[in-house]
Design a protein that fits this description.
Length: 142
């Protein structure tokens, strides 16, 4: 017999919050297999497995749109692994670009901090560097 779980039990078993589970459902990343007579969501082991998959993909930094593609491929037993690899490689490139931006930000702050005496003087190269006027808008880091 397939055990059905409430949303609270599903949350505890998947490491997600009930709010996130409902959110993923609202984004059509998955749909619970059952409802109680009162209309409450009920989750079976396949649902929990799908939720764990989604959580793992989020932990790897995939966007919701990418996760939708991945879950479609995951469920498709006739998929081509080349498509999965293409998605993964594109995501790796995005992560590496973000990592380079973060490294550059850290290097800038490290340089500013190295020039700061960190004493009782009011002069602070860190604040001066942050406040320095830019001639063009900063790159979108978010």
């Amino acid at each position: 017999m397939n055990t059905l779980h409430t949303i609270g039990e599903a949350a505890a078993r998947t490491g997600l919050t009930p709010k996130m589970i409902r959110y993923y459902e609202s984004q059509a990343l998955f749909a619970p297999q059952g409802r109680s007579d009162a209309g409450y969501r009920l989750y079976d082991e396949a649902d929990l497995h799908a939720l764990r998959f989604i959580r793992s993909a989020r932990e790897l930094g995939f966007s919701l749109a990418q996760i939708a593609d991945l879950t479609d491929l995951w469920r498709d037993r006739h998929r081509a692994s080349a498509e999965v690899k293409r998605l993964a490689m594109a995501h790796i490139e995005e992560l590496e670009t973000k990592a380079a931006v973060l490294q550059s930000m850290a290097a800038t702050l490290r340089t500013l901090a190295r020039h700061c005496h960190g004493d009782q003087r009011p002069e602070c190269p860190i604040l001066e560097g942050i406040a320095a006027a830019r001639t063009e808008p900063p790159a979108n880091h978010g």
